[in-house]
Amino acid sequence: MRFLATTSFRCDFGIAFDIDGVILRGPVPIGGSPQALRRLYGNSGELKVPYLFLTNGGGIPETKRAKELSELLGVNIMPSQVVQGHSPFRNLLKKFENEFIIATGKGDPALVMSEYGFKKVLSVEEYASYFENIDPVFQYKRWKTTPISDMKTPSMPRCDVSSDRIKAAFVVSDPVDWGRDIQVLCDVLRSGNLPGDANRSQPPLYFAADDLEYQAAFPTKRLGLGAFRTALESIFNRINPKSLEYVSYGKPNPFVFKNAEAILRQLQSSSCLDHSENNGMSESHPFRTLYMIGDNPSVDIKGAQQTGHPWFSILTRTGVFRGNDNDAEFPADLVVDTVEEAVDFILKRECIS
Ligand SMILES: [Mg+2]
Fold first, then answer.
1. Is residue 6 part of a domain?
2. What is the domain extent for residue 26?
3. Whether residue 208 is found in the same domain as residue 262
């Protein structure tokens, strides 16, 4: 008979951490996040509790984000543990793999899409650069722009912007140049083709998230992707006879939480210590509880509650929410000051502290 120290431990729970306003503010760890995460690993650095990051942010490939987070937080984070707003765009590969698409947002939106396997993608920045004066105030923009020749568009079959029809537009992360992007997206979405062409049906438009506001490095909330969507939609609907059609991903969409549960189950069976009863063979079993730790009641808490069992919502006071009590509209199952306090609560409740 063999006794394992881990026999009593069943990882029938998992954790999803929001990033902005919970783990980081800008690039700075907050709320004791490095210490809190370290408690989810065993002595030799193995993952003890299945957890992932569930953020509406993005703009860089999951592989790169996992590396950045590992360095900032001092633990080894795998790319599969990073679920960003745009991660579900992967599921649209079948539809658009070989079609001409455009992508916008901070960071490297075309690289993100090409890492998912999309073969003909241009950033809106690069697409716009083929049309002289498409942005009428371009010459007044004093920030540094990237010469087309230096753009990091990954090698791919070249797109011919003068003849290829755009089959879809993706807003991957917060756009940097709202004015140019609204202009170019209105052009493309109205014509389904070259700017100024006759009206045709609108190509599909996808947003990675729909947060109106979020907590970044500035002390008060900043306008998010949902604010950009509102601006684009409002302008488009004024200049086009048909209303804008679009699909938004990201929290609070229950789809995101169901997808997170599926990923946590894979982590549970591949990484956790619960192998004692199967001679080392791993087996996943249903989660009793999944904890969502977030700072935004209308995004993190609303999403967990709408999804229902097995989600349990924990609201921190380090980001969007700063109240003394609980949020009035979307009250969380638990309110704590910091993510460290949240992890402490979870580990005590699950009897593994
Ligand atoms: Mg947040």
1. no
2. 13-85+251-272+285-350
3. no
Calculate how far, in angstroms, residue 240's C-alpha sits from the geometric centre of ligand 1: 34
Tell me the per-residue pLDDT of 124-177, one tens digit each, with 9 for 90 and over: 999 999 999 999 999 999 877 666 556 555 555 567 888 888 999 999 999 999
What spacing in Å lies between the alpha carbon of 231 and ligand 1's midpoint?
Answer: 22
- CA angle in degrees (0–180, nearest 5) for 54-55-61: 100
Domain-located, residue 233 = yes
CA of 213 to the centre of ligand 1 (A): 9
Same domain? 63 vs 138: no
Please tell me the distance between residue 29's alpha carbon and the centre of ligand 1 in angstroms: 13
What is the CA(247)–ligand 1 centre distance, in A?
21
- Domain containing 67 — which CATH number? 3.40.50.1000
| Tens-digit pLDDT profile for residues 7-59 | 445 589 999 999 999 999 999 999 999 999 999 999 988 999 999 999 999 99
Tell me the CB-side half-sphere exposure of residue 10, using CA atoms within 13 A: 10
Ligand 1 centre and the CA of 197: distance in Å? 40
Which of 214, 225, 231 shows the shortest CA–CA distance to 248?
A: 225
Q: What is the distance in A from the centroid of ligand 1 to the CA of 332?
A: 14
Residue 318 in contact with residue 22, Cβ under 8 Å? yes
Side-chain-side CA neighbours of residue 187 (13 Å): 19
Regarding whether 102 and 243 lie in a shared domain, the answer is yes
Distance 318 CA to ligand 1 centre (A): 9
Averaged pLDDT of the chain: 90
Prior bond to 310 cis, omega within 30?
Answer: yes
In the reported structure, the alpha carbon of residue 18 is separated from the centroid of ligand 1 by a whole-number distance in angstroms of 6
152 domain residue, yes or no: no
Number of structural domains found in the chain: 2
